[in-house]
Amino acid sequence: MTMGDPIISVRGLVTRFGTHTVHDGLDLDVRRGEIIGIVGGSGTGKSVLLRAVVGLLKPAAGEIRVFGESVRDTPELQYRQLRKRWGVMFQGGALFSSLNVQQNVEAPMREQLDLSPQTRAALAAIKVRMVGLPENALGQMPSELSGGMRKRAGFARAIALDPEIVFLDEPTAGLDPIGAAAFDILIAQLRAALGLTVFFVTHDLDSLHAICDRIAVLAEGRVLATGTMAEMQQIDHPWVQAYFKGPRARAALVQKRTA
Predict the structure, then answer these.
(1) Other C-beta atoms lying within 10 Å of the C-beta of residue 26
(2) What is d(CA 136, CA 51) in angstroms, rounded to the nearest whole number?
(3) CB 168 within 8 A of CB 94
(4) Which residues contact 192 (CB under 8 A, 6 or more apart)?
């Protein structure tokens, strides 16, 4: 694949919880090298879509391909190899509370790679520095970290295996504006440095303005529209208009212009 090719392809996705249908024929392509922001109202299935793409949720119907491989139908051994090529940061960082930062970052290495303890420790230290945490954070427990530090530690774990794709679920939620802006910069820097594709579930309009190449809007059980921020402004749909032209959207746009 080259830059711009679809690295993730979703076709006809249907997901249900009991009798409740979340996605009903959802289609989406994610291009190699882009940061794509996944947005939508509450209950539209943004995080559900992320979990389906990485194979943590089995859909009722449809096809999901990552790197050209079917996530649904790939045998377990092949899926394990495929899974090494992406990293996931769940909401809040989702660190193991009984492990320190170093052990959390090493967790994917212990599961997926045959490395010596010394090599794992050295790699964990590199990843922690890459996300802007001090080296002494390695020995700290999640309960000893601030919210922003926990998110950075979660990001370090997501890039532990040098993935080609990172999936980020509301990474700036709960951060103050300065911390959220700093995290946006980190995402953009690591995308550039590591050649990442970033699948970015967010509600944060500032993040959409600051770093997303494209936006995908989830509504009515499907991807209603994809495009740039400028293209979102032209879509004649009530939720899209309210979201991208409301007071908070205007404030984010003013902030971007004055930054």
Answers:
(1) 24
(2) 32
(3) no
(4) none
pLDDT for res 211: 95
Q: What b/e readout covers 229-243, taking b as 16+ CB neighbours within 10 angstroms?
A: beebeebeeebbeeb
pLDDT at 1: 46
Q: Is the pLDDT of residue 77 over 90?
A: no
Residue 230 phi/psi, 5-degree rounding, is: -60, -40
> Residue 185 gets which letter from DSSP?
H
Locate 242 and state its tokens: 């309210």
Give the separation between CA 184 and CA 174, rounded to whole angstroms: 14
Taking residues 88-108, what's their average pLDDT?
A: 92
Rounded to whole angstroms, the Cα distance separating 153 from 101 reads 7
The rounded distance, in Å, linking the Cα atoms of 219 and 98 is 38
- What CA–CA distance (Å, rounded) separates 90 from 224? 24
- C-alpha triplet 255, 200, 161: angle, nearest 5°: 125
Q: Mapping DSSP to helix (H, G, I), strand (E, B) and coil, where does residue 215 land? A: strand
What is the residue whose two structure tokens read 């947005």? Answer: 39
